[in-house]
Specification:
The complex is a heterotrimer of chains A (about 450), B (about 325) and C (about 325). By secondary structure, chain A is of the alpha/beta class. Chain A has 2 domains: about 30-145 and about 325-385, 3-Layer(aba) Sandwich (D-Maltodextrin-Binding Protein, domain 2); about 145-320 and about 395-440, Periplasmic binding protein-like II (D-Maltodextrin-Binding Protein, domain 2, 3-Layer(aba) Sandwich). Chain A has 19 helices and 13 strands. Chain A has helices spanning about 1-20, 40-55, 65-75, 95-100, 105-110, 120-130, 155, 160-170, 180-190, 210-225, 245-260, 270-280, 290-295, 335-345, 350-355, 365, 380-385, 400-415, 420-440; strands spanning about 30-35, 55-65, 85-90, 140-145, 145-150, 195, 195-200, 200-205, 280-290, 305-310, 320, 325-330, 390. In chain A, helix 2 runs antiparallel to helix 15 (about 350-355), helix 10 crosses helix 11 (about 245-260) and helix 18 (about 400-415) packs antiparallel against helix 19. Chain B is built from 14 helices and no strands. In chain B, helix 4 crosses helix 14 and helix 11 (about 230-260) runs antiparallel to helix 14 (about 295-325). Classes of the chains: A alpha/beta (about 450), B mainly alpha (about 325), C mainly alpha (about 325).
Chain lengths: ~450, ~325, ~325
Amino acid sequence: MIQMMRALGVTAVVVASSLGGQAVAQTKQLTLCWAAWDPANALVELSKDFTTKTGIQMKYEFVPWTSYADRFLNELNSKGKLCDVIIGDSQWIGGAAENGHYVKLNDFFTKEGISMDDFMPATVVGYSEWPKNTPNYWALPAMGDAIGWTYRKDWFARPEIQAEFKKKYGRDLAPPETYEQLKQIAEFFQGREIDGKKVYGAYIYTERGSEGITMGVTNVLYDWGFQYDNPKKPYQMEGFVNSPEAVKGLEFYKSLYKCCTAPGMSNAYMSEGLDAFKSGQVAMQMNFFAFFPGLYKDPNVGGDKIGFFVNPKQKYHFTQLGGQGISVVSYSEHRDDALAYIKWFAQPEVQKKWWALGGYSCHKAVLNDPGFPKSAPFAADFLKSMDIVKDFWAEPSYAELLLDMQKRVHDYVVADKGTAQEALDLLVKDWQKVFKEDGKI
Amino acid sequence: MSVFRSVNDRANMSTLAEQAVARTPRRLALRFRGLSDRAIAWLFITPSVLLLLAINIFPLLWTIQLSFTNYRANRPNAPIRYIGLDNYRDILTDTEVWHAMQATAHFVLWSIGLELVLGFGLALLINRRFRGHSVWTTIILLPMMLSPAVVGNFWTFLLQPQIGLFNSAIALLTGVDPSSFQMIGDVALAPWSIIMVDTWMWTPYVMLICLAGLRSIPDYIYEAAEVDRASPWRQFWSITLPMVMPFLMLAVLFRAIENFKMFDMVNLLTSGGPGSTTEVASITLKREAFEKWRTGYSSALAIILFVTVFGAANIYVKALNRVKQR
Amino acid sequence: MTMPVTAHSVAEPSPRSKMIASVVVVTYAVITILPLLWIFLTGFKTPPDSIAYPPKILFAPSVEGYVNLFTTRSRQTPEFLASLPLPQTWYERLVRSRNMVIGGPSKVVPRFVNSMVIGFGSTFLAVCFGTIAAYAFSRFRVPLADDLLFFILSTRMMPPIAVAIPIYLMFRNLGLTDTKLGMILLYTAVNVSLAVWLLKGFMDEIPREYEEAAMVDGYTRLQAFFKVVLPQATTGIAATAIFCLIFAWNEYAFAVLLTSGDAQTMPPFIPFIIGEGGQDWPAVAAATTLFFIPILCFTILLRRHLLRGITFGAVRK
């Protein structure tokens, strides 16, 4: 009996000590939170310079994209101390600013001489400001990103394919400049046998759970004339979200999904796209510029086999903004060190190295450099894209707005529910409800 | 609720009492000497009840309170407003919520139906006790021991039209082109994909219970029926089925409760898609509570769900007890 | 032991009916085990093989899946790789042959350890609380026993998401979010209901004569409990412990909502093992296999008590 009690006691102590968290580290340490993807690996490489210069060790918390928002919004809402520095998604700015999750950086920027004029305007508005278009900064633009397209340059270059395309459509096979052209090319490749395997035309986003299909459909909607609200009267959405043009745009996205995509892609986002393109299933792929360095390096489809083009235009020319800014978490216990990281990151030399390693710098010193467009095959397209970006709502209640759109769009495009007009009408109602609860209308 | 009585074993009571005397430490004996039975009963029950009160009842009460507010967990500093029954009214008039309940009901009814038929059938066959039946039984049991989340995840791999095992297997058997249909992305087939995976996982559960039921029927009843020259079909209807019925009903009860609450497997298999075709109640609840952060609203939904299950279970258990008595 | 009781649809099944039964059951068993076998095999494919279309049944086995599971890697250009020192270990060589470099260990081992700590911790507590409560329900006339027992059962009728809402708020206020302690408390509370029900059944089967004899000999109820009843109940306690462990082991909803890093267990971790594009299926398969092995052992050990465990002790063979 005594022995048993002793054994139980020892077990209890062992269990309790394993719960107690780690011993307090003596060296200075910062934890940086981001999504787990190639640019994050590049940042790890880049930050070794920071550690050398300041002696502060970096720890990283990288989470896959599908649980990135869940995980870190949860963390911020629970006032967690895990992250000192966080590279949060552009849409989190509103909520993070109004709920006090991020440290306001205006004073810090003034003190350290960091000017937002040094960064591309679209990125400042998109990643740092809240409210939008006011000089209140909650993040430093860290990772510029937008939707772009990749295509199989080697397939496009084959003479027999070029000949057949010319015969069918009367023009040369080339990267599309309008969405009508893109659909033609997609139809052309759909079901074609190339190198003994059946291939498909295009890969577009259809993910239901987090933000996938919205990030895909907006590229088409913006081009057709969709607007979030009346430019003259904020939050007036009737007639702008569900305008006849927007309806046509939504119908086009659905027709593209139905005619020209690979089977089984009903819940697909960035990673499935990479798989589909790398395994040679599709001729063209919609994805974020962030992945293009990695794709270019891919042994199977990289190098000469891959080409890039900007999101095609239709009546207007836009592309969906991606990208993130880097912020200091207000609950962090290492605020000064975190600010030191921001200061280091903002330096032009560091920004240049960031681009070289595979991150998309937003600093004018990098982007306005005359050598930039030639520095990578996708660099010129990136610059063009950043001129035409448009972003989703960044309101504090952006998550609800996003989920509403996810549901309505996925219901219509993938689940064949109702008409495009109905989907957008219901979306307007959903969004009005959210804004009413928020007191904005 | 005591659904079944225990079976008392008559065993050997040799020198256990003496051994107990020899090994009890003096200190413990002295300290607790004289503690009455009543005191011990309360002492023993209290920790469990306290823990359940703290982790189950107190939160339940808090949920009820929250359901009358417009609280949002992602705006902890905003003032809480009591809005009475507004949340409940919103939920009960929301077509999307009814749609989710429909999806849940479809899932529960069909999966349990299939599991009953398959499980009972398998039990009947295994009960013939052919050679090696216990090995094969153990193999059939394995799917139910997996984590439902992990199952949902790897079934997305298996059900992928191009690279998945399922479509290729169907193609092998029926000759259709594997990429011509997809289980998860198709509006018509997606509900069947979750039913299929659930049936795959939990048929052994029903099978085990039915097997126990079948084995509890004593031989002599069948022998008497044979003497009376009752046909096998007659025996099944008047002996087997009624005597296994309480077991079947118990299996249905537990499966129904579990499937009504189901979140892990469906969320990872279809994310409630395409659209909201397979958005079962728990997924709606998760989206409202942890993605939209409408804490008050989702608390009301949680209460509604709980009352539904609790009420249904209560009624069902009363029926079950009546069947057991027969 | 009691006489073995068997039921037959007829007095004794004919050999022909036995053969038909065996064919059907074996077919079902094979079909049902096929997905698991496929996953097991996928753990030994290379990533390109795992997403080959049409799916490959014959393939060159590789432990790349397992290596990928335990490491984080990044792809580099051949020039960069050439500039690095030569690989020392077999797994580094394997990774380099794919033009990648190992960055460090992945998080799978801490997650596995979390699963074990939270699993065993909550099981230990649930079994302790459950054993004594079950004894009380079994031996004493507790007022409102039936209602209390049903109350204990009904705590499992709430969808986990629903319970998670207030628990999330509670944990946030108490600073227990993403802590192993918080998860252990939560899982203990959920497991206690299972433990009480199961152990009550086991306790009911231990004849009272033992304790009564001991008490006649001058021992208090408590001493009789510790020295007479408990040793007899060890099988039952072990079986109950394993069922509680299986629940905590496989649980996902609470884990995904209330943990994110320090206390995250395997079930929320496995579906998010990402490779260079989508999920790294060989690594996911490897993780699934490794995660399942303890449960597999327990299933085989526990076969006799499985029925009891899955029905909360209501049904015993």
